[in-house]
Amino acid sequence: MTGAGPDPRPRMTEAGGLAGARCEACGYAVAFPRPRCPRCRGELAPAEFGPGGTVWASTVVHVPVPGVEPPFGLAYVDLDDDGPRVLVHTGGEAPLPVGARAELAAPDSLGNLRAR
To answer: Which domains does the chain have, with CATH numbers?
Structure first.
């Protein structure tokens, strides 16, 4: 491998939402730039999602990961306005309840998307 490509993680907008895209043909939402819609191969248009969403699943990780001290939480959040589902880091030693409301927060020092 000759080097790392662009960072594939979702990016936040200045307003605190997620900078993603929506398919102009089928309406499918994606959390990061792609050349075409992964569902129908249609054209994608820039869109902003969130910053709020609903927790779909959550867990607490107790295994050390480079740069992150355990325990730390992870959650999948379905962003509002039919936005994409994104993986976020969460604080605390207990998982967020499924169905709870969450809001995107500034990325951590490693660039990981966070929610509170």
So the answer is: 11-115 (2.40.50)
